[in-house]
Amino acid sequence: MLAAAAAVVITAVVVIIWLYTIASHARPGTDQANARLDAVRTGLAAGAGAGAAVGLMLAFRRQHHQEIATDLTDRDATERRITELYTKAVEQLGSDKAPVRLGGLYALERLAQDNPAHRQTIVNVICAYLRMPFSATEPVSKPEPEATEGREAPSAETAMGAEALGDTWQQERQVRLTAQRILAEHLRDDRAKDKRSTELPSPRFWPDISIDLAAATLIDFDLANGVIADADFYGATFSGSAGFGGATFSGSAGFGGATFSALAYFSRAIFNSDTEFEGSTFNDTALFERTAFNAYAGFSAATFNGSVGFHAAFNGLVWFLETTFSRDASFEGTTFNGDAEMRQEGRTDVAWFDKAIFHGSAEFGGDTFGGATFGGDAMFKETTFGDDAMFDGVTFGGKVLFDEATFSGEARFSGATFSSGGGLSFTRSRVLSQDAQHVWPTGWRVEPDGNDGYTVIRS
Q1: Count of structural domains, the chain
Q2: Residue 374 is part of which domain span?
Q3: Pairing state of beta strands 227-228 and 444-448?
Q4: For residues 124 and 298, what is the distance between their CA atoms, to the nearest angstrom?
């Protein structure tokens, strides 16, 4: 206010002095007096105009400040309302009644849909709920009565209690399935992958969301076509099928130590950052058809108890160290190329299968790498092939080491090509069946190793 008043006074004084000086050059007498009077009037008018401008400016600032204060008040009220709704929904999740927990989940979903800034927090809450301990199998509802002498059969109250426990489990199962459906619906992007940069997504899609389901028990989990930032499934138990077909992981994806009890479907999935399946157990079929691993992929110490199909593209280093394939494993048409960063570091290794165990049976197709391409070094040191090992038509672009490997069935390298400067080695490898229909690389043959077996040597 003081600055505004000073500006008004200075404006008036400057104008008066300037015009008064000009008026002094008028003809002495009446003309000069009138000119000086006009100078004073004009100066005062200029000061009044400046004062009006300053007043208008101050009024504008007051209005602007009032609007800001109103907006902040509205935002504060909105945030308080969101906080109240959020708190109430979270409290509902803690209820011992399944319908109340369901209401809490739907309240959180609506809150996240209407408030994008809170979506990650709400997803974190839903994931935390799914991480709560839960048995993948239903408890026995009615214990069988025992008629052994000296022991009483279970009472009616015990049977009723067990049945109630089963009902509680079923209700909690439905709540968890609802939580999974909420995540799946809002993380799914049904646009074609080649049109995601040009077409608008569904308003129901929540982008850039990370999920933490480490050690969670998940039931028939379906994240087909999901788009996720970071994903943590370490130690998770997938009861029933696990569907990740067409999913895109833009950040790291961790499945280390996870257990897949039924079909694990990762076909057409895209992993754009490091992916880990170390120590995971697949108890049924696992499919990675047309899956793209665009960074490091780790399957070390994983166990595949069912068939596994990798018609995939590994565009980074991949490890299958000490991995166990209990049935047939197919890597037909798979490419192992490494990535630009590895090449800049001077690394040439692209695939490690050291100490892996293949138990595939010829009845189910055996273990095959037919038509695969290794863009760099391929390591099969101390690998065990329990049945047929098929490398027909494989392209090896670097070193190939089968040192101390064991071939129990046929070993076939028909049409395989090897890099002239890469090197191929079968040092101390063992062939347990000389009479099998082997097809060794050109320039190699089998001879006795002096230990009731055979080894592969240069011709």
Answers
A1: 2
A2: 208-458
A3: unpaired
A4: 26
Report if pTM > 0.85.
Answer: no
Instruction: Label the pairing between strands 227-228 and 248-249.
Output: parallel
DSSP code of 188?
A: B
Helix/strand/coil for 250: coil
Any domain includes 442:
yes
Given a contact cutoff of 8 angstroms between Cβ atoms, the answer to whether 286 and 258 are in contact is: no
Please, what is the end-to-end C-alpha distance for the chain in angstroms? 102
Backbone angles phi, psi at 297, to 5 degrees: -130, 125
Which tens digits make up the pLDDT trace of 377-433? Answer: 999 999 999 888 999 999 999 999 999 999 998 899 999 999 877 789 999 999 998
Per-residue pLDDT tens digits for 36-69: 566 556 656 666 676 676 777 777 778 877 777 6
Kindly state the tokens that stand for 120.
Answer: 């990650």
198 lies in some domain? no
d(CA 205, CA 264): 24
How far is Cα 286 from Cα 418, in angstroms, rounded to an integer? Answer: 30
Query: Is residue 406 domain-shared with residue 258, that is, in the same domain?
Result: yes
